[in-house]
Amino acid sequence: MRKIVIASNNPGKLRELDALLKPLGFETVSQGQLGVGEADEPHGTFLENALAKARHASRATGLPALADDSGLCVPALGGEPGVHSAYFAGREGARAERDARNNAKLVASLRPVEDRRAFYYCVLVLMRSAQDPVPVVADARWHGAISLEPRGGGGFGYDPHFVPAGMSCTAAELAAEQKNRVSHRAQALAALASRLR
User: N or C: which end of the chain has fewer CB within 10 A?
Assistant: First the structure.
């Protein structure tokens, strides 16, 4: 098993990435378990933020680091919430409170809009060291639409409102194993794994 630090303290992301990386022969440890705090994410793109997070975790731990930067993009809202998905409705409160406020703001913004198409976007960056000049990068999109009514108790973030293309259920209604086969994160990790091979 190769040990890798996951540059996140988001429990939902950690669960998904651990489940996706184990079959590839990686032993994951979260940066929080190693006493590493969150990196700043001041950038305007998912890629720049993922690079910053991976470099921060690798520098602090001396381990290879995998960072994910992902979010929900709604074309009718000019791409929002985008890179600000986690804090769309502010930074106050615990994760569950922020998720609830983010979802409420999303629904309020889309209520008068007919075109509710959306996609989750994920970029993964693997840095072998903090000075890695050629990090491995992979990305993917998971297309769907936003439901104004939440459904399901699984997943996290915007999952109760995200209806994947070709499905009638929300991402929050999918079993974790099913989501881990079709999500933006799963697709990006599959692309990353093929590059690592």
Answer: C
